[in-house]
Specification:
Elements (H helix, E strand, L loop, with lengths): L3 E3 L4 E5 L2 E6 L4 E5 L1 H9 L6 H8 L9 H13 L2 E3 L12 H13 L3 H14 L4 H13 L3 H14 L4 H10 L10 H12 L2 H8 L4 H13 L14
Antiparallel strand pairs: 1-5, 2-3, 3-4
Length: about 240
């Protein structure tokens, strides 16, 4: 059997308990425990399965070396691995624009591990994609990677120095002394971004029901009477 190797489209990142591996072509995320992470590293195309068994076998419980073959077979089946002599023309890597779009979709769907890998790969391919730097900063912050978030946001801010929101966020990420209040331009930027999704955030995310509650209160007081004269005492 030809030597197994990691598919060239796979994006890898270490995590607390091994690796995450994302295939952006197949849109498939793999969670690799420490043993699987080691096997992924050993499958670099230079080793036969017999050599991989010899290196990884002593780390497995007695009688479990067959798991190595099973893992490699499963890796080939799912597109994580290729065999050294196989055709790889069908595993064309996504373009930077496609990866950027995939990053945004994954982020919106809450798939932050995969989004993180796509954002990093986008920047590797197109380091002047400032939107990708912004995405990486936001995703890294979600993952608790403060240093990475700070560095990514700083790259974005260097190219977009008028973004008051990121300027304010960088103060926190640098652990600088906070200002007495957020700057006017930071507040303006936050509310400008919020305006586009105000309805969905208020109604769907925050379950805002102020008008309905007010209507219930009025009906409780006046019943179904109509033709009423209404005075609005709200202040401007």
């Amino acid at each position: 059997m030809p030597n197994p190797r990691l598919s060239p489209v796979i994006l890898l990142s270490p995590v607390e308990k091994g690796y995450v591996a994302y295939n952006p072509v197949l849109d498939r995320l793999h969670h690799l425990n420490p043993t699987a992470a080691l096997l992924a590293e050993l499958c670099d195309g230079s080793r036969s399965i017999e050599e991989i068994r010899h290196l990884a076998g002593p780390l497995l419980p007695q009688g479990k070396t067959g798991e190595i073959d099973r893992w490699i077979d499963e890796g080939i089946r799912t597109g994580l691995l290729l065999q050294d002599g196989s055709e790889s023309a069908g595993v064309q890597e996504l373009s930077a624009a496609e990866l950027s779009a995939r990053t945004k979709r994954l982020k919106e769907n809450g798939e932050v591990q995969a989004a993180h890998l796509c954002a990093k790969r986008t920047i590797e391919m197109k380091p002047d994609d400032w939107s990708a730097w912004y995405d990486l900063g936001e995703i890294a912050q979600c993952l608790g990677r403060r240093a990475e978030a700070r560095a990514a946001y700083q790259k974005y801010f260097d190219a977009n120095p008028d973004d008051g929101e990121i300027e304010h966020l960088l103060i926190a990420l640098r652990d600088d002394a906070p200002p007495p209040r957020a700057s006017d331009r930071a507040i303006q930027k936050i509310y400008k971004n919020f305006a586009a999704s105000y309805e969905s955030r208020m109604l769907e995310d925050l379950k805002y029901a102020g008008p309905e509650r007010m209507l219930d209160a009025i009906r409780g007081a006046v019943g179904d009477r109509d033709g009423l004269s209404i005075l609005d005492l709200g202040r401007r």
